[in-house]
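User: I've been going back and forth on whether these two constructs are worth ordering. Before I decide, could you fold them both?

Assistant: Sure. I'll take them in the order you sent them. The first construct and its C-alpha cells:
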Amino acid sequence: MKNLVRSLNVVIGCLLVAISINFFLIPNKLVSFGFDGLATLIYYYNHVRPEINLLIMNVIVILFASLFVSKEKISSYLYPSLLIPIFMFATSFFEGMINLEIPETMLTVIVAGFLSGYGYSMIYKEGYQAGVTFLIEELIGKALHFPSKIYSWIIDVIILVFVLLVFNYQIMLYSLLVIIINKYIITKVRFGINDSKMFYVITSKDKEVKNYIMHDLKYELTVLDVKGGFTKKKNQILLSVISTNDYYKLKEGIKIIDPNAFIAITDTYDVVNRKSF
C-alpha cells in the first residue's frame, strides 16, 4: 500500500509539471528551469514538440551518467524523466479542447510556478529526482571535485540569456519569476515552512536571560558548555527554539537585558520532542 501511494504521488507530480508546461508556459512563450526550460526553448526555435526534446535529452544524459554514477542514483531519475514527457505528450491532445488562458501574465507566472513547483516537490518527497539537470550538476561536481548547487543556476542563466535573445526582456523576466517561484515552492513543500527560530545566546547576564525565556516567554532552553576558539575562555551558550511569532519579543528582550549579548538566530523547519531535554 505504501509503495502504491508513493507511485501515485510521483505520477500526480509528473502530471502537474506537464500541465504547467503545456497549458501555462508554452501558450505564453515562457520557460521553466533546467532541461524542461531548455526543451521548451528548443520548441520555440524549431517547432519540434518539447516532450520529444525533453525525452531525447533525458535519455542521453542518463545513459552518459550511468558510466559514472551508481545504478541506484540513475534509477531515482529514470521514472520521472520518462513520465513527464509522456504526460506532456498525453495532455497536448487537450490543448485545443481546454482553454486555461489567464488574461494577466503575472497571474499565469504564479500559477505555472506553483503547479510545477508543487509537482516537483511531490516527486522529490518520494525519493525520486525530477530533473536530469541535477544529475549534470553532480557529474560536474565530481569532475571538478567541488560539489555545488550553483551549476544548475548557471544552466538556468544560460537558458534565460537565450530567451532574451530569441524574444525580449519581458519574457525573460517573467521566465525568471517562474524559475524563482518554482524553486521556492519546491523548498517550502519539501522542508516545510520555517515556523520556528533557534536562538544561540552568549551573555554575561545568563540568569536574567534564562528567567526571561523560561518564565516570561514560557519556553524551554538548553545550556551548552563551550570554550572560545580564539580567547580559550570558557562560557555557556543558551539554546532555545521558539515560535516565529515571538522572534522579535525574545530578540529585543535579550538586547534590553544585555546590550552586549551575542545572539545567533537560524530558521528551524521542524521540532521533534520539544520537551525531551
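The second construct, handled the same way:
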Amino acid sequence: MSRKEIIRILLYSLTAIASIATWIYSTHLTKELEEKETLYSSLWSDAVREFENVDLDGNVSLLAYKIIDNNSIPVILMNDNTNTLLSYRNIDIDSSKISSVEEYLIEKSKEMHSKHEPIMVEYKQGIYDILYYDDSKTLKQLKVYPFIQLVVSLLIIVLLIVAIRNSTKADQNKILVGMSKETAHQLGTPISSLLAWIEILKADNQNPELTLEVEKDIKRLETITERFSRIGNKPELKYENICSVLRNSVNYLKSRTSKNINYIMEIPDQEIIALLNVSLFEWVIENICKNAIDSMQGKGTLTISLTDSQNSINIEISDTGKGILKRNFKKIFQPGFSTKKHGWGLGLSLAQRIINDYHKGKVFVKSSQINKGTTFKIFLPK
C-alpha cells in the first residue's frame, strides 16, 4: 500500500470517527434531556400527593397551575374517573380550526399517551388524575439533530472522497498527457531518419521485399507517434466498419508475433458500423492483445470475438495465459501499475481512457483464472 493510500484511509477514518463520536454524544445529550423532562413531569405527581386532603373542586385549578408551572413541556391534566379536562399547558390551539377545545385536548392526550406513559396521581382512594406530557420543542429538535448531523457528515465524507479522487485523476491525466506528448516528440527524429534511409534503399534497389516490410513498420511507428501526440486532445470520431478495423489490427499483430500463437477470430462477415477514432481504437486492441501474448509467454491461443446487440457492440479478447488476481482487476488500469519488470504501467491506463472518455464505452476484465487465462471485454454503446 502506497503512502498516499495510507494517508487517504487515515483521513477517511478520522472523519468517520469524529462524525460518529459527535453523533453518539448528541444522542447522549438528547437522552439526558428526555430523562430530565420525564423526571420533571413526575415531580408534579409528587406535588399532587401532598395535596391529597385538599378540596379538589375548589382548588384543582390552583393546584394545576402550581404543578404545571413550566414554559416548555406540553402537558394535559385530566380526571381518570370522569375523563374530564382539568388543565393544560404549552399546547398551541387554533380555535378557528377546531369545534371544541376539550375534544381537541382529549385527542391530544391520546397522542401523548402513545409517546409517553402517563403519570397516575391518586388523590383519594379510587380517585385519580392523569398527567399526559410530550417532549418540549427543544427536545424534539435535539432528537432530530443527530440524524441531520450524521447525514451532513456522510455527505462531507462523500464529497471529500470525490474531491480526492478527482484531484488524483487530474494529476494522473497531466502525467499521462505529458509523457505521451514527450514520447511523440522523441520518436519524431529517429522516424524521420529512418524514412530517409528507406528512400536510399529504394533508390539503390536493395532487397525490395525487405525494404517494403521495413517501410510498413516505419509507417506503423508514425501512426504510434500520432496516437501519442493526440492524447489530451479530443479526437475526431467517424462512422467506421468496426469488423474491418478489428481484422486489420489483429492481422498486423499476427504477422509480427510468434507462430506459436493460435489466433481465433470470431468476427461477423457483415458490416457493423460504429463511431470510432480508428487510430486510437486500433491502439487499444493492439495493447490488450500484446499484454495477452506476454501473459502467454509467446505460446497459446488468443481469441477475439465481436457480437452486435441492439444497444451495444461487445468485443471480447481471451488468452490462455497466467491470469490476473481478482484484487488486481481494477488496479491494472491505474497508471504505473505493472506486473512486468520493465513495464511502465501506462498501456491499459491509456486504453481505458480512450474507450471510456473518448468513445463513451467501457473496458474491463470480464473474468480471469490463474494459469488458465483472462478475458477482457470492450463495450461500445450504439
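Notes on the second construct follow. The longest helix spans residues 137-203. The chain has a mean pLDDT of 79.
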